[in-house]
Design goal:
- The structure holds two protein chains of two kinds.
- Chain A is 61% helix and 0% strand.
- Chain A is an all-alpha fold.
- The radius of gyration of chain A is 19 Å and the shape is flat.
- Chain B is mainly α.
- Helix content of chain B is 52%, strand content 0%.
- Chain B has helices at 24-33, 41-53, 55-74.
- The longest helix of chain B has 20 residues, at 55-74.
- The chains are: A mainly alpha, B mainly alpha.
- At the A-B interface, helix 3, helix 5 and helix 8 of A face helix 1 and helix 3 of B.
Chain lengths: 192, 82
C-alpha cells in the first residue's frame, strides 16, 4: 500500500488532527502514530458504506483508531513494557497534595465549586477543553489514563502491559484524574 | 516489582477501622477508584458518610462525574444501557 499522503475528503481531514493527538498521546510522536491515523482514515474512506450515520463521524473514527492502537500495543508489548514507570516515578506528585491541607481536607480557600455548564451549545467546547487538559498531562500519566479510559484496558491488564504495580498504578491514575479535574473545573469557570 | 509505595493519604485496608474517618483526600481517591472497580461495602459506607458531611467533597464528586462522562464522550465509549 502506498504511503504517500493522500488527499482526504475535507470531512475526514477535519478529524485527523484530533485522531493524531490521541494517537501521539498513546504511542508517542513516532511514525506509528501517523500510521495508525492514516490507516484509520483509509479504513473509514474505504468503508464509508458501513458508516450508517447512527453515531457521529468522529465517534466512529475514534472507535476504529482504538482498535488499531490496541493492535500496535499488542505487538509492542511482546518486546517490552509499554510504559516505563520509574520505581520512584512520582511524575507530578505535587498534584496529590495541591488543593488539600495538612489534615487532608480540601483547602476551602482555593477549592472551586464550579460545576460543568449544562447547555448543549457548549458541549463541543467542553470536549475541546478536555482534550487540551489531556495534552497537558505529563506524558506517562497521559499514556496510563488513555490505556484505561480510551482503550478500556482493565487495571489488571495495565499492570501487566505497563510493568507497574497495582498500588503505583492506582496512585498514578488518581493523580492524573485530580489534575484533569483541576484543569476542566478551571475551564468551566472561565466559560461562564 | 516489589514495594509499591502508595504515598501519603492513600486509603489502605488499615484505614477501614471503625475509629478512622476518611479525609477529603481519601474520599477523592475512592471516588476515582470507583471508576476502576467496585468499592467494598466498608469503603462505600465510609465514603457515603463523608460525603454527607462535606460540601467540598460533594462538589468534587459531581465534578468527577462530569469529567468521567466527558471522557466517555470524547473517547466514544459505549456505555451499556442503565
Amino acid at each position: 500500500m502506498s504511503r504517500s499522503a493522500p488527499v482526504w475528503p475535507e470531512e475526514l481531514a477535519a478529524h485527523r488532527r484530533f485522531l493524531l493527538g490521541l494517537a501521539r498521546l498513546q504511542l508517542g510522536h513516532g511514525g506509528e502514530a501517523d500510521d495508525v491515523v492514516q490507516d484509520t482514515l483509509l479504513a473509514a474512506a474505504e468503508g464509508a458504506g458501513g458508516f450508517s450515520g447512527g453515531v457521529p463521524l468522529r465517534a466512529w473514527l475514534t472507535g476504529i483508531l482504538r482498535h488499531k492502537i490496541v493492535d500496535v500495543l499488542r505487538l509492542r508489548g511482546r518486546m517490552q513494557p509499554l510504559v516505563v514507570v520509574d520505581a520512584d516515578g512520582d511524575e507530578d506528585s505535587g498534584i496529590a497534595e495541591r488543593g488539600f491541607d495538612a489534615a487532608g481536607r480540601w483547602d476551602t480557600a482555593t477549592f472551586e465549586h464550579t460545576q460543568c455548564p449544562q447547555s448543549h451549545a457548549s458541549q463541543r467546547q467542553l470536549l475541546e477543553m478536555l482534550e487540551l487538559c489531556l495534552h497537558a498531562l505529563p506524558p506517562r500519566s497521559a499514556q496510563l489514563v488513555l490505556m484505561r479510559e480510551y482503550l478500556g484496558m482493565s487495571t489488571d491488564e495495565i499492570v501487566v502491559q505497563a510493568a507497574v504495580t497495582p498500588g503505583h498504578l492506582r496512585v498514578l491514575l488518581h493523580r492524573a484524574r485530580l489534575r484533569l479535574r483541576e484543569c476542566v473545573v478551571r475551564g468551566w469557570g472561565e466559560e461562564l | 516489582m516489589r514495594g509499591a509505595r502508595m504515598g501519603r493519604g492513600t486509603v489502605s485496608d488499615d484505614a477501614m477501622d471503625a475509629d478512622d474517618v476518611l479525609t477529603c483526600r481519601d474520599a477523592a481517591l475512592l471516588v476515582c477508584d470507583a471508576r476502576d472497580r467496585a468499592l467494598v461495602p466498608a469503603e462505600a459506607s465510609y465514603l457515603g458518610r463523608h460525603l454527607s458531611t462535606c460540601a467540598e467533597c460533594r462538589s468534587a464528586a459531581r465534578q468527577f462525574a462530569s469529567l468521567f462522562a466527558q471522557m466517555d464522550a470524547l473517547f466514544a465509549v459505549d456505555k451499556p444501557a442503565a
